[in-house]
Design a protein that fits this description.
The structure is a single chain. Helix 1 packs antiparallel against helix 2 and helix 4 packs across helix 6. About 20% of the residues have low confidence. A four-stranded mixed sheet has the order 4-3-5-6, sandwiched between helices. It is of the alpha+beta class and about 400 residues long.
């Protein structure tokens, strides 16, 4: 084989050299002549070397012979007799698997076999079809009662308070006692067995909880003792989420209609300072942006919120832009104007409401938040106690 390779390499090198010389110096006619001579030389060389190549191929093929002429083992694992009807259905077992240690190691895997008769004794009780696709049935077959019992309970569970400490202690004790019970079956010893709980019922309850969870996020009904003035709901300026004014029940309120391009816009700073100073004592400053006067609040709710935050660092509650003028005022301002006898005539008009939800005073736009008159009234109202109900 080495002799053949050496001859072929020399012929190939001669051909390349001839072509290189022809490309550099000879004419087209000379190139064709040299190419023809080279082809003839290769053919002749191949004819001469063919007998050697045949011998090399035979030697290579002989080296791949891996079949053994040894006779078959007469031990276990042989195929059944040829005359058997099932002779073609069996394969000989590899010798390593005949070792008892291997069989012992693979034994647990055989226990994982799943057959119908394995679980005949664990047949689950038949459950009738539910009144709807929401889960297991109830005794009276009433869909309404089913929703009241399962769906509502699951959906409103986030707002139900439990004693975590007592439950945790009780659960731990029960779990310990159950784990030590003599008749308890170890789940690991019964692979592929049916679970001890109803998977369908579990999934049903979880799906109901997820589907009805928005109910928990709805605003709770206003309490009966919430003052009538505060029984209004407005969307928050920053998020657009509805918020009831009843959350300010028992607080002293300073309600102001605001604008971003007014000569009194700088009062934002004084209002925020007052809110931060007295909020721990029960004061809440409430802002209502309005474009009623001089068109000085033309921006969107998002733009107004950004302006208040970045310019004055406003943190007191503010609601979405609305009208506070006489004819088109929102319900809160309509009631404030009716009870105080004074409606806003410009931006930054101020109403003061006591802890019981009663309007006490009204101040014109030019009164600054740090006015001694306003401060004295706020401190007096903060000192009063909230008469609930």
């Amino acid at each position: 084989m080495q002799h053949v390779r050496l001859v072929l390499q020399r012929l190939t090198g001669a051909l390349r050299a001839a072509r290189t010389v022809a490309d550099a110096r000879w004419t087209v006619r000379s190139r064709r002549f040299v190419t023809t001579v080279a082809i003839v030389a290769i053919v002749i060389g191949a004819a001469v070397l063919l007998p050697f190549a045949d011998e090399a191929l035979i030697d290579a093929a002989d080296s791949l012979s891996v079949f053994s002429n040894a006779g078959q083992d007469d031990g276990a694992g042989d195929a059944p007799a040829t005359g058997s009807a099932d002779a073609g259905r069996y394969f000989s077992v590899p010798a390593p698997l005949e070792d008892e240690r291997v069989l012992a190691a693979l034994g647990p895997i055989a226990n994982l076999s799943c057959r119908k008769d394995d679980y005949a004794a664990q047949a689950r009780p038949t459950i009738e079809s539910p009144p709807s696709d929401l889960g297991p049935p109830i005794e009276d077959k009433s869909a309404t009662a089913w929703l009241d019992r399962s769906a509502t309970t699951a959906g409103l569970s986030p707002i139900t308070r439990f004693s975590d400490a007592d439950d945790a202690a009780g659960d731990t004790g029960e779990a310990s006692a159950a784990s030590k019970a003599p008749g308890r079956v170890d789940p690991l010893s019964t692979p592929l067995s049916s679970p001890q709980f109803d998977v369908d019922d579990l999934l049903t309850r979880n799906l109901l909880a997820a589907g009805l969870s928005p109910i928990a996020a709805l605003a709770l009904p206003e309490s009966a003792d919430c003052p009538a003035l505060l029984r209004h709901t407005f969307n928050k300026l920053q998020t657009g989420q509805p918020q009831s004014l009843c959350q300010f029940q028992g607080k002293v309120l300073l309600i102001v209609n605001t604008a971003s391009y007014c000569e009194y816009t700088k009062q934002y700073e004084g209002l925020e300072a007052m809110y931060r100073k007295y909020r721990d004592r029960g004061l809440v400053v409430v802002g209502f942006p309005s474009n009623d006067f001089g068109k000085q609040e033309p921006g969107s709710n998002q733009q107004i919120a950004e302006f208040c935050r970045t310019t004055y660092g406003v943190q007191f509650p503010m609601f979405e832009k609305s009208s506070v003028a006489k004819l088109s005022a929102n319900p809160l301002y309509t009631e404030l104007a009716a009870k105080t006898g004074a409606a806003p005539e410009w931006n930054f008009h101020k109403y003061v409401v006591d802890r019981n939800g009663s309007p006490i005073a009204s101040f014109a736009s030019d009164l600054p938040p740090d006015s001694p008159k306003l401060i004295e009234l706020i401190e007096r109202l903060l000192a009063e106690k909230y008469a609930k109900g």
